[in-house]
Amino acid sequence: MPERNPLLNPVLEWYARCARELPWREPDATPWAILVSEIMLQQTPVARVLPVWTEWMRRWPTPAALAAEPPGEAVRHWGRLGYPRRALNLHACARAVTDLHGGEVPSDHATLLSLPGVGEYTAAAVASFAFRGRHAVLDTNVRRVLARAVRGEEYPPKATTAAERALAESLLPGPEDAPVWAVAVMELGALVCTARAARCADCPISGLCAWRLAGKPPYEGPARRGQGYAGTDRQCRGRLLAVLRGAHGPVPKAALDAVWDDAVQRERALDGLVADGLAEVLDDGTYRLPL
DNA sequence: TAGACGTGGTT
DNA sequence: TAACCAAGTCT
């Protein structure tokens, strides 16, 4: 049967030659190990995830092991990975898996999607990488590669469109190759077809790339908004949570007051952390990670 | 649907 | 150096 996707073979050949060796890609990686890696990798570089993932796997090799802990321990051992509600999500995943799914990470996309913190991308990634399912795995890397190679544009739209999804579906190879195709396109986007500087000289599909063939026209869409961080509630939340992570018991409010000057913003941020379940207030007015 | 949500490395 | 960017999800 002829393959409809001309990118398939060159990308698979490149992946076999150039893929990074990552522990969650080893043949003995469990679905749990893969789920943990996927949540940690959301908006977070591999280099920062590696040590935390390794420590989590040593400490909590199964969902049941994590489920037996208070959620605050997940937050504590999240360290400085960022977006700490992901730690809470992973803890809730562990409890859902042990309570609802017999201790095994579910294999089908719909059930995965029901887990906290697992969205369209992560469900497809786990179903594909852990269970060899056939899914369009659309992350920022894949979207960028397809935008360039097929659509001829430097960057994909800000939010995933139905057209992008349809394109990704149309490129999906047979069940045998779908999982490796998914990880290989992601890897190509991560290592070669990067956001800042596409390394077309190293790209296995440069000869087929619509963007390169068009002379690499620059992005014309609306300016992509800067994130901004200094002085934001996010920065304030980060400071406050760092105090709670570093302490192994309840923290007096004064210790929190000390890390952020603006009292109005500080109270708002602290209330937000409590509302999000990342912190608890005790009767005596002290704070701690959630039990 | 746009904006919130952390953190640190790179250009 | 400030801006950009990193395997997204949720509301």
TrEMBL record:
Name of the top EC class for this enzyme: hydrolase
Catalytic activity: Hydrolyzes free adenine bases from 7,8-dihydro-8-oxoguanine:adenine mismatched double-stranded DNA, leaving an apurinic site
EC number(s) per entry: 3.2.2.31
Keywords, in A-Z order: DNA damage, DNA repair, Glycosidase, Hydrolase, Iron, Iron-sulfur, Metal-binding
Residue span, HhH-GPD domain: 40-191
Keyword set includes Metal-binding: yes
Keyword DNA damage part of the UniProt annotation: yes
InterPro entries on file: DNA_glycosylase, Endonuclease-III-like_CS2, HhH-GPD_domain, HhH_base_excis_C, HhH_motif, MIG/MutY
Entry cofactors: [4Fe-4S] cluster
UniProt record similarity statement: Belongs to the Nth/MutY family.
Protein name, per record: Adenine DNA glycosylase
